[in-house]
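Second attempt. The first submission of PhnB protein had a stray character pasted in from the spreadsheet, which I only caught after the job came back as garbage. Lesson logged: always re-copy from the clean sequence file. Corrected sequence (125 aa) follows.
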Amino acid sequence: MNQLYPYVIVEDVQGALNFYTEVFGGTTKILNAQEGRVLHAELFLANGGTLHFSATFGHHITVGDSTRVMVQFTQEEEIRSIYEALAKEGKTVVELQDTFFGALHGQIQDKYNIHWVLNFFKKQG
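This time the job returned cleanly.
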């Protein structure tokens, strides 16, 4: 199968790119800009994942609740730090908590209305 990538459509691509780079780290690439405004960009994460960004190009974007971006973490400290960073100016949907399915799990709708599902599966004894 080919690779799947989250494609984030926002009015302020540069602002979103700066925010997610601060949250996740990684390197960025501006694909195109016009009149000082970033239209398309990519954020390459250290783990090999990529987030793609696009401007709205004047189209109205309806915030829906049927799509989530899920992140599986390998370190507990990392999920806690990312959860806190996304929660700033965002809305907690599910508090970060231990779950019956063996994961530290939380959900955040961030300031760009992107809904994040975060999991860290603890080692089973």
